[in-house]
Write a structure and sequence with these properties.
- The structure is a single chain.
- The chain is an alpha/beta fold.
- It has helices spanning 85-90, 111-114, 128-140, 163-171, 216-228, 261-264, 270-276, and strands at residues 18-27, 32-39, 51-56, 60-65, 76-81, 98-105, 119-124, 148-154, 176-181, 191-192, 209-213, 236-239, 255-256, 259-260, 267-269.
- It folds into 2 domains: 18-104, Elongation Factor Tu (Ef-tu), domain 3; 111-239, 3-Layer(aba) Sandwich (Rossmann fold), CATH 3.40.50.
- Helix content is 20%, strand content 29%.
- The chain is globular and about 50 Å long.
- The N and C termini lie far apart (39 Å).
- It binds flavin-adenine dinucleotide (FAD) and FE2/S2 (inorganic) cluster (FES).
Amino acid sequence: MCDNCGCETTEENIFLPKEAKIIKAVQATADVKLFTLKMADGYIHWDPGQFLEVSLFGYGEIPIGFASSPTRPESFDIAIRTVGRVSGAINKLVAGDSMFLRAPLGTGFPINLLRGQDVIIVAGGIGLCPTRSLIQYIMDRRDEFKKFTLIYGAKNPSQQMFKDELATWKKSSDIDFYDIVDKADENWKGEVGLITSLFAKTNLNPETRAVICGPPIMFKFVVMELNKRGIKNENIFLDLERRMKCGVGKCGHCQINDQYVCVDGPVFPLSKAKQLEEAL
Ligand SMILES: Cc1cc2nc3c(=O)[nH]c(=O)nc-3n(C[C@H](O)[C@H](O)[C@H](O)COP(=O)(O)OP(=O)(O)OC[C@H]3O[C@@H](n4cnc5c(N)ncnc54)[C@H](O)[C@@H]3O)c2cc1C
Ligand code: FES
């Protein structure tokens, strides 16, 4: 029985791409498109932090994180930044078109270790997309978690995604939300600087569980801030990105030492991530 929507789950062939229909497609920023999807044939089951292999015939297949929570199972979101051939082709699709998916893949955020605890999520840039799945999950099951803090950094105001949700989170008493941009524009009235400077505004209990998702350069400095506040490495989890092909532990493209990022991750406890990520 599925924990999220209560339906019966069935075994599926994970190598077989399945058709998903685009219900809605909007530009989240100039180069990131947010798609709301429904499987053409039945439901999909996922945990926050898991990912999909998204394909378009004639172009290829790319790994993309779920950007919405399984507590909202009627449809699901993914957000794709145009960086190359496949992402560029997919981002030309519009509502009514189809794309093809293999999902759910990977090991997501350790919800059972976060439940009943204070939680902080630190999201940099497009890292807000996979963490949005966890943010929505916590907000939808708010009484299962204690204090919830979210820190979000973007390069500039035009790169901020999900602006309506940011405004809602700012007003909500369920979440301590802080955002910042590296560089302001003439209309920006908020904080300017590095994401780590926002930690001065937080009031974190040393037992807080932390989730970090963003550019690897950010990880080391965010971990230092968390450690300064007494948060132990065993309570810090990182969402890593690696080049992937199969997404199911067969091709070895994502392998580092004895770990396959596609099945053992992409979310790793910091102790394990330190063995995989040289920057840490
Ligand atoms: C688990 C996971 C989740 C991801 N979630 C998202 C998401 O939610 N939204 C999103 O926009 N992107 C996400 N990505 C990154 C996305 O998969 C790549 O941007 C995509 O594969 C690029 O393919 P392409 O053919 O368009 O570009 P290519 O032509 O292959 O590459 C263009 C540029 O992107 C870089 N690139 C390619 N693949 C990756 C990768 N895996 N990681 C980092 N840089 C890469 C290349 O080095 C090159 O500079 C995720 C990656 C992983 C592994
Ligand atoms: S992508 Fe093939 S083993 Fe991980």
